[in-house]
Amino acid sequence: MSRLVCVSNRITVPRRAAAPGGLAVGVLAAMRDTGGLWFGWSGELEANPPPTPEIVTRGEITYATISLTQADYDRYYRGFCNTTLWPLFHYLTDRFRYDHEWHLGYRAVNRRFAEQLLPLLRPDDRIWVHDYHLIPLARELRSLGVTQPIGFFLHIPFPHLEVLRLLPPYAELVRDLEHYDLVGLQTEADEQSLRSSAARITTGAFPIGIDVDAVIAEAAAAMRTEPVRRMITGLIGRPLMIGVDRLDYSKGLVERFSAYQRFLERHAGRRGRLIYLQIAPLSRDDIQAYAEIRAALEQATGRTNGRFADTDWTPLRYLNRNFPHGTLMGFLRAAQVGLVTPLRDGMNLVAKEFVAAQDPADPGALILSSLAGAARELDGAVIVNPYDLRSVSQAIEAALAMPLDERQARHTAMLAALRSRDLRAWHTGFLAALSAAARR
Ligand code: GDG
Hints:
- This protein has two domains: 4-209 and 423-439, 3-Layer(aba) Sandwich (Rossmann fold); 212-420, Glycogen Phosphorylase B (Rossmann fold).
- 46% of the residues lie in helices and 16% in strands.
- The strands form two sheets. It has an eight-stranded mixed β-sheet, with helices on both faces. A six-stranded parallel β-sheet has the order 11-10-9-12-13-14, sandwiched between helices.
- By secondary structure, it is α/β, with parallel strands linked by helices.
- Helix 13 (349-357) links the parallel strand 12 and strand 13.
- It contains 16 helices and 14 strands.
- The mean pLDDT is 96.
- Residues 20-23, 25-26, 155-156, 208, 244, 246, 281, 322-325, 328, 345-350, 353 line the site of GDP-alpha-D-glucose (GDG).
């Protein structure tokens, strides 16, 4: 079988501190199945990056990493990727900024990725490029003479043309996508949005899933570990409501904290009888919008706890910490309510992990934003509009009061949906479609 070459912005070489994020887990699962080469940025900044990648092999996977300069990082990563494309693609146009220099930096880094990947390629490779950082990569590779199949998967939403048009070089970006044999998106809605800009691209919806049995096993095993037991002891028998999100404005945390405050106002009987634990590891914290959101959340936490806490009760526990994945799955299993309310999300794997982590005999209820890709599969969740504080507050009450038989019925339906489109289905489905598209 031909070799799989995955390309993503950041690379997780095992035993290096891994940044939390759904993409790395998905790529790793695909690579573990077939072996192959994974190419991307090491996360290091250097004044004079070496002209060839650093190569490390672990088992069946070879990792090839390059470093970037500070100027690349500022223009390509902080600028164009995370201050231009990220907010625009999430329809958060207030946060969208554009600078021509950032765009040049984006193009230059994509060119360098292509030049450094080229000597590593073999004639029978299949190349799978991941996410918004690398949209121009196929065009660059093709211009260097690469003829192997190249597929692209976008982990975040794709905006409708009427939003995409805010981006000055939007037409160029759409033309970049035409150089791929296949462009994969999370949902059919994203696929339709892309089609509003580009009719000539071969597209498909490949919703990313999770390794259901692995999460079930992780969550069950974590219940016996010290960190999970300590957390449960600290609840003193109170029900737990949980959120786990990278600290990102797209995750709707400010709105969520406001909805919780409203809930405590309107449901005085629940005061002292519920603990909301929000885990939000810092991400991209050198970008101003992220620093702002962090400050807003600290203030909101202080307001809620200052107003409602009692000598023996803190309503909101807000942690900017990273936990091992297994520990997180144990926390999810211990919760009666999962709160996943992004303002927009490509998929949202935490919602899926919450479902899989539950004890089927007494499952918790999931509150899920209608604006997350996952809402299209998880219709057993309590679906909310994250901007509607009243409905989120009512959903919290409904989730807490939901009878066991209803929780079980919803959980069974959602678990079946997760199994029918799991992580393996995602990568095998994409790669099969890529081969078929390349043959045509
Ligand atoms: C992007 C898209 C799409 C979280 N905190 C920690 C930690 N996590 C893990 C979660 C989950 C993953 O990270 C987060 O995935 P999400 O899907 O929720 O969100 P993004 O990072 O924004 O991912 C998203 C995804 O790509 C995949 O295509 O679903 O829409 O935005 O697995 O459990 N993991 C560890 N420590 C943490 O503190 N180890």
